[in-house]
Structures are given as C-alpha cells and as structure tokens.
Amino acid sequence: MRSRASSRRSSIQGSIENLDLSELEFDEPVENDAHAGGGLTDISHHKQRVINVSNAPPVSIKRKLSGSWEIQQGSGGLVACVDPVMSVDKENMWLANIGMNLQGAARRISEDHASPSTNSLGLPLLRQANAGEIFHVLEMSLLSVLHDYNKSNYQLNPVIVNQEDYNTYYGGISNGLLWPVLHNLPEYIVKDYDDEQVLREHWCAYVRVNYQFGINAVRNSRPQDFIWIHDYHLMLTGQMMRSLDSNLEVGFFLHIPFQPPDNWMTKYRIVAEPIMRALLRFTKVGFQTHRDRQKYVELVKKHISRARIQYESTVDIFTVTHENFTCSLGVFPVSIKNEDFLNIVKNPATTKLATEIRKKLLSAGSDKGCIFFSVERFDYTKGIADKLKAWKRYFEKYPERIGLDLLYQVAVTNRRSVESYRVYQDNCLKIVDDVNAAFICKKFPTWKPIKFNMDGLPRAKLVAHYLAMDVGVVTPIKDGMNLVAKEMLICNPAAALILSSGAGTEVQLGNAGFYAQDKQCYYRVEDVTDTEVCVVNQCSSEFCV
C-alpha cells in the first residue's frame, strides 16, 4: 500500500542530521489507493505469507549474448537456510536488489581483471562495473523473465534504489564498516571513517536505502504476513516499518557474528546507537550463537538504560521492552538440508567423479598423500592467509611430507572493488606463489603444495570433492555459522575436520559433545600446523583447531 509520510520522511530521504530514527512519524495511509493491499490495509481473508527481504536475491541473473535474460538459482548460506521455507508457498515473496546480481554475458572474474579506480572505501563501487544496470532492471525482456520465474516459484520482486546511495550503502557502510565491526576485525574498517563528516554522509545513504527496502516490504505486505529481514545491510528496516504500522510482525536474522570491538559505541556512535535501538523495534531478532546474543544483550544493558530485559529460561529467549515495543531475542543456528547433499552422495556418478578427482589431484605426487580441502568466499574473515602460512609452516616443520600432501583451496573471488578485499586477496595469491616456489620435490617435480581455484564449484562437483578429501579445513577468524563444515561432515563422515573456534559451527558442535571441551581452539598458524600433522598421523578421528 502506498502511504504519505509527514514532513519527517524528508529527514530520512535527505538531511538526516540528528539520525534519531525513533522520532520518525508518518501520516495515516491514503484511503482508496489504487495500490491498496499493503501492510497498512485490513484484509482479514488472506492467509499468512512469508515476505523475505534481503540485499541480494536468491538467484543469479545473466544476460546472454542474444540480449535475453537468464535466471539461475543462487547458492550460499542465505539461500540454503531460507529457500526451503519460501518454497512451501508460491504466494511467499522475496524482495531484493537485483541490480547487484546482474552479469553481462562476456563478464568473467579473473586474476588479471582490472578493478575500477576507487578510494579505500571502494567508491564509486560499481560505477565502472555493473551498477549502471540497476536502473535497466525493469526493461521489458527482464520483466518477462521475472514473470515466468514467479509462475513456478515464490514471488521475486526487485527493490530499486538510487545508484549512488546503493554504492555507498553497500561498499561503504555495509562492507567498509559493519562487516569488519561485527566480525571484531577493526583493522579492516576503512580509514575514511575516521572522518566523522564522511561517516555521517555515508550513514545517511545507508538510512535512505534501508527506507526504500522497508517501504517496499510494507507496500507488499498484509496484516497476517510475517516479514523476515536478513543481515547487516538492513538493520534499520524494522524501526522504519513499525513506525508505519506498529502491528506488523517483522523478524530479523543476523547471519554474521555480533562481536563489535570495545570502541564501537564511542568512536562510531552516530552509527552504533541507531542500530542498537533499531534492532529492538523488530518483533523477533535471531542470532547464530549464544555468544553473539549475549554480546548484544550486554550492550543493551550498558547503553540503553530504559530497556527492560527479562530472560525466559524454559524457551531460552530474552524479551526486551523499550519505548512501548517488545522484542524477543533468540538463538537460531542455521543449517543445511541434509537430504539434498546425501542424495548427491548416493549418486554413483558422484562416487565415480570423486575417484577421478582424487586421482587427478594426487597424480603429480605420491598416491599415498593426503588431500586437504577448503572452500569459502575470498574474504579476510575466512582466515585464508593464516591457513596458507600454516601450510608453509607445515612443510618447514615436517619436510618428509613434501611431495605427498596438498592443499586444494577454493576461494570464490568477491568484493574486488573494496580496497581492503583487493589488498587481502592479492596478498594471499602472493603467499600461494611463495609457498609453491619454496617447496620442490625432486622425486615428483610437477608436484605443488597448493592448488588454488577462484572460480567456485557447482554443488555436485563440490560434493565429489568432499568425498575425495582426506581432511576438510574450515578455519575462519570469525564466521556466523559456516555451513561448509556441516556439509563436509554430512557428505564424508570418514574424513577429518579441522575447525576453528571462530566458526559458529564450532560452538554448536562443541555443545553437542562432538569433541572434548578442554581442547585448545584457535585459528593461529602454529596451532593449525600441528593439527595438520596430527591429522595425517591419524591420532584422532575428530579435530578442532
């Protein structure tokens, strides 16, 4: 439903100087609006739907050489945990920005692909790449493809935002500030945000984009619907939406950790305070682990003095009441759909492919070697640089393993336009070259200690690699959950798993008694190195670094 905001709305869209979102006020909805049917309308005969709202869509949209569009189902943690819920009912709706997922037919990510010129924030992030396509997303050929997609799936609706605002919201506040902050990796916060004026200007863009997502969700909702907001890009939407209609049921799930550094509420106050308060306007907020929820509760107690907090031990839920709104805080670790992976494992073609993969990977060295396998996004939170250094240290300490073992690292390149990512990725590639040059085996001259792949693997081939590996290596510095670790365990329970305490999965498996709680659990180079040789020597069947 379309609504008319009061003069306060302009403070969101323009000069949001005081950034106090709690003061937003809105007029009553327009009666007899031609677009009636949104969250502000009383339509009691409709059944409840799920309206899913995320920055990125669950699909990849590509333009063929012919000019026509092609939609393919996406992958990743968000799609894995949400798609089963959304697929239950074709009336469910997914709202997302589609522009960032548009790919030209000839565009390919490669190591030597030149990135657009940027400052340390990576801005203008996509101006020289594909952000311009955001405003062409509604051309008739793509609309037709979306229409066909919606016939056989839940409803996928695009959220269109101002290009410049989107660049700043995504490449600036979201990935230049919130991502490193919430992972407690302050060294990756872009230096530009030491300037309060820059921080304030970029924060205003983040607010405006959140408003566009929020108003789209309200317009498409009905009173019975559950609106499900995802991740750090959209942390303000609940407050905006419930300012429009306080009866809306709006949930929020944070897929990444919530572990901000100690100076979060002081140095970045103009961002931190509104986010802390805005989260309390959601009906429900979900975290991946108890440690993430506990950190948020501690900050609420310390910085929002009027909030009333209660804990219900029988259901393990915190209830927080603030400014006449009540929010429940829960822990809901995401997982995978086991049968999807097991069905691939049971396929004879997968077993055959796994045998071929193993033979090929070990062909340059001894067939008695071990395959260490790791797959993740090429992100500084994933601990890839430390893992590569540990692999170098492994051969320095245990030279008898030269010519035997190899690390196959799949690191899917992303966010090359952000300088911190570009520098990190280039540094990792240099480490790979150095390690491969440092260890030569005279007996097996074509053997190399590291095989590095930046292109990713389709699911069937990925599962085959899980079956081919001897050891899965999952060593993020910080990770909300990490579904790869679960996939490895489900697909190949006979393999060993090196899992760092930085992953939310480690907390879940530890609580389930998967390994002794008194073990040292780090992602550090020496610890990974020693655990690698322990795995090779088959000292235990379960490992946690």
Automatic annotation (TrEMBL):
- Give the enzyme class: transferase
Q: Which reaction does it catalyse?
A: D-glucose 6-phosphate + UDP-alpha-D-glucose = alpha,alpha-trehalose 6-phosphate + UDP + H(+)
The record's Gene Ontology biological-process terms are: trehalose biosynthetic process
Q: Identify the InterPro entries for this entry.
A: Glyco_trans_20 (IPR001830)
Q: Listed GO molecular functions?
A: alpha,alpha-trehalose-phosphate synthase (UDP-forming) activity; trehalose-phosphatase activity
Q: Which Pfam families match?
A: Glyco_transf_20
Task: Provide GO CC annotations from the record.
Answer: cytosol
What are the EC numbers?
2.4.1.15
Q: Keywords assigned by UniProt? A: Glycosyltransferase, Transferase
Biological function: Catalyzes the production of trehalose from glucose-6-phosphate and UDP-alpha-D-glucose in a 2 step process.
PANTHER family attached to this UniProt entry: BCDNA.GH08860 (PTHR10788:SF106), TREHALOSE-6-PHOSPHATE SYNTHASE (PTHR10788)
Q: Which family is this protein grouped under?
A: In the C-terminal section; belongs to the gob-1 trehalose phosphatase family.
Annotated protein name in UniProt = alpha,alpha-trehalose-phosphate synthase (UDP-forming)
Q: Which organism is it from?
A: Brugia timori
